[in-house]
Write a structure and sequence with these properties.
Shape: globular
Helix content: 10-25%
CATH topology of the largest domain: Rossmann fold
Number of strands: 13
Bound molecules: magnesium ion
Number of helices: 8
Strand order of the largest sheet: 10-9-8-11-12-13
CATH superfamily of the largest domain: HAD superfamily/HAD-like
CATH architecture of the largest domain: 3-Layer(aba) Sandwich
C-alpha cells in the first residue's frame, strides 16, 4: 500500500514508524499507481492512535475510499470526496471535516457515494451497549402522505404504524424518523412549519403509546428556489447524513437496524443497514430491498431477521 501525506508528511512518517508501517510515503497523489490505496493526512486535524485502523482497512480493501472525521466525542469513518469538483464541502454538512482519507484513483463520484461503509463509532469515554434502531420515513409511513404536508390540521397518523413502533419499543430499539422536506427549499413552507408538524406527530404517536426518540429533517434540495436551502446535501435521503447524525446522538447498531420507507429514495445508501419498503402510492419498481403491503408484514420480517445483540467495546 502506498501512502500520500499531502501537507503533514513528517508527522505522519513519525507515526508510521512508531506503529511499524513500512509502506512508501509519497508527497504527491500523482506518484501513486492507479489502484492502490491512498492515505491523505492534513495538518488541520491531529493524527489519532486509530490510524492503525485505517491501515488495516486499507490493507484489506485497497479500492475502498474511506475518510475520517470526528464529531461529538465519537469517531466516524466514511468515504470522503477529495477529488470531486461536482460536490463541494457543503454537500457533507459537517461530516466532511475529515483529516485522513483513503481513496482509489479514478473512482467515480457515484462509485464512491454508493459504497459508503458502515461507520465505526468509537467512544473513548465509556462502554455503551448499542441497540438497533427502527428508522422510519415520515410521510407515507408514519402519517398519510398528503403531498407537502405542513399544517397540523392535515396530519393523519397511518393506521397500524403504532403497532410497528410498539414492536420496536418492546424489542428495546431506538425509533427515529428521517424525513426529506424539500418543500422548504421549494418555498412552499418554512423550516418552522416542519418542526411544528414533527412535534405534533411525535405527540400524536406518544398518545398512541408509540414513542419516537427523534425526528431528523433534511430541508435541503438541489433544485429548490430558496437559496438558504438549495444545494445537494448528504443529509437528503438516499444519502445517509440524517442516519449518521442519529448515530452520533444515540448508541445505534446500524448493522442490526432497519429503515422503512415508501419511496425508492428512502433506501439509505449505507452498507449493512437493512432497508425495506412499505408499498404506498409510489412506484417501487426496481426496489433492491423487500417490499411489504402492511405493517404486520414488516413486523413479521423484523421477527425473522433480527440479529443477535452485540456489546460495544471501544
Ligand atoms: Mg414517504
Amino acid at each position: 500500500m502506498d501512502i500520500v501525506a499531502t501537507d503533514d508528511g513528517k508527522r505522519l512518517r513519525e507515526y508510521l514508524d512508531k506503529i511499524g508501517f513500512a509502506g512508501e510515503l509519497h508527497s504527491d497523489v500523482k506518484e501513486l499507481s492507479k489502484d492502490r490505496a491512498v492515505l491523505l493526512s492534513t495538518a488541520k486535524y491531529p493524527l489519532k492512535y486509530d490510524l492503525q485502523y485505517f491501515l488495516n482497512v486499507a490493507g484489506q480493501e485497497p479500492a475502498r475510499l474511506i475518510c475520517y472525521a470526528e464529531n461529538k466525542g465519537q469517531k466516524l469513518y466514511w468515504p470522503g470526496n477529495t477529488q470531486d469538483e461536482s460536490l463541494d464541502d457543503s454537500f457533507y454538512d459537517g461530516f466532511y471535516d475529515a483529516g485522513i482519507r483513503f481513496f482509489p484513483k479514478g473512482s467515480s463520484v457515484e462509485d464512491r457515494l454508493n459504497s459508503i461503509p458502515t461507520p465505526e463509532f468509537k467512544n473513548e469515554n465509556f462502554h455503551i451497549r448499542k441497540k438497533p434502531a427502527l428508522f422510519l420515513d415520515r410521510d407515507g409511513v408514519v402519517n398519510e402522505d398528503t403531498a407537502y404536508l405542513h399544517k397540523i390540521r392535515d396530519v393523519r397518523i397511518c393506521a397500524g404504524v403504532d403497532k410497528l413502533i410498539q414492536f420496536a419499543r418492546r424489542e428495546n430499539w431506538h425509533v427515529i424518523i428521517l424525513t426529506n422536506q424539500s418543500g422548504v427549499a421549494r418555498g412552499m413552507f418554512e423550516a418552522d412549519d416542519v418542526k411544528t408538524v414533527n412535534d405534533f406527530i411525535m405527540g400524536s404517536l406518544l398518545k398512541l403509546d408509540a414513542a419516537v426518540d427523534a425526528v431528523y429533517t433534511c430541508n435541503f434540495f438541489d433544485k429548490g428556489t430558496i437559496s438558504r436551502w438549495t444545494k445537494k446535501s448528504l443529509m437528503r435521503k438516499p444519502w445517509p447524513g440524517m442516519l449518521l447524525s442519529a448515530c452520533h446522538d444515540f448508541p445505534i447498531d446500524i448493522e442490526r437496524s432497519f429503515m422503512v420507507g415508501d419511496k425508492l429514495v428512502d433506501a439509505i445508501k449505507i452498507e449493512r443497514l437493512c432497508n425495506i419498503h412499505l408499498k404506498g402510492v409510489y412506484d417501487l419498481e426496481g426496489a433492491g430491498c423487500p417490499v411489504f403491503h402492511d405493517y404486520d408484514g414488516i413486523i413479521d420480517f423484523f421477527k425473522k431477521n433480527q440479529k443477535g445483540s452485540t456489546i460495544y467495546t471501544p
